Amino acid sequence: MDFFELVNRRESVRGYLDKPVEREKIEKIIEAGRVAPSACNAQPWKFVVVNDKAIVSQVARKLYDPLISGINKFALTSPVFIVVVAESRNLASKMGKLVKKKDYTNIDIGGACENICLAATELGLGTCIMGWFKEKGIKNILSIPSNKEVTLVISLGYYEDKEPRKKVRKDIKEIMSYNNY
Ligand SMILES: Cc1cc2nc3c(=O)[nH]c(=O)nc-3n(C[C@H](O)[C@H](O)[C@H](O)COP(=O)(O)O)c2cc1C
């Protein structure tokens, strides 16, 4: 797929087929995250892949909240989750953070997650990045140390192939300018 077609084809997929995802594909997708850029090459991430059916369903119940207008109900159909944990930064980027007063951890993780979503799209799989979940519950299920942060969870799976939705985005004139704000 041409890159520009790929970025347009990627969309949040909120419903999956009951079909397992091959390990080979999962590893290719994580590899795309692994090579993402990060400030000072800190790579402040760990991707916990959840593909064991029993654990998947436990994690799904920490994403779906029936009390908040059924948010993330579709997670109950996802055969795989990639749980993204923020890891501590290397010395160079810790120094940079002190001097510049900027923490790039979430930015780095965002870039890696986009690589992951695009790789999945290329391989015919759907994803949805989720920021809404019960973090403590997920940490308990996956034995993630309590001092670490779960930044995002990405659902991953096969889905019914159809034309991508039309992207709802701000107009390019609103978000771009040349040589002056
Ligand atoms: C950081 C982040 C958190 C998100 N959290 C959720 C979520 O909890 N549930 C959900 O259904 N979608 C979530 N989304 C998906 C966005 O709603 C979606 O990317 C946006 O509406 C654009 O639609 P598209 O991804 O289909 O192009 C999240 C996206 C990002 C980047």
From TrEMBL:
Its EC number is 1.3.3.13. GO terms for molecular function: oxidoreductase activity. Residues 9-158 form the Nitroreductase domain. It is an enzyme of class 1 (oxidoreductase). Keywords: Oxidoreductase. It holds the Pfam family Nitroreductase. Belongs to the nitroreductase family. This is Albonoursin synthase. It comes from Clostridium vincentii. The lineage of its organism: Bacteria, Bacillati, Bacillota, Clostridia, Eubacteriales.
